[in-house]
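Summary of Year 1 activities. Much of the first year was spent building the evaluation harness for sequence design. The harness presents a backbone, in tokenized form, and records the residue chosen at every position. We chose the following record to illustrate the format because it has been used consistently in internal testing since the harness was completed.
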């Protein structure tokens, strides 16, 4: 390993805008159970599935339908 590295020719990470941020959410137990079961079926971790679903909602500008 070198004592020093030269980063003068380095480039910024082109994927930096797509990075994730850790947050804490309070989810109902049935929601967690649903995504965990879906994770078993698909082989995708349940947290990734929740992120994929929320991303799809955000990209399609999905709105909630409130029961009045």
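For this record, the design step produced the sequence shown next.
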């Amino acid at each position: 390993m070198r004592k020093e590295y030269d980063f003068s020719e380095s480039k910024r990470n082109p994927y930096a805008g797509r990075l994730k941020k850790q947050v804490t959410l309070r989810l109902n137990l049935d929601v967690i159970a649903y995504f965990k079961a879906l994770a078993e079926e698909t082989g995708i971790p349940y947290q990734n599935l929740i992120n994929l679903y929320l991303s799809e909602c955000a990209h399609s500008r999905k709105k909630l339908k409130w029961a009045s």
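The chain has a mean pLDDT of 92. Quantitative recovery figures across the full test set are reported in Table 2.
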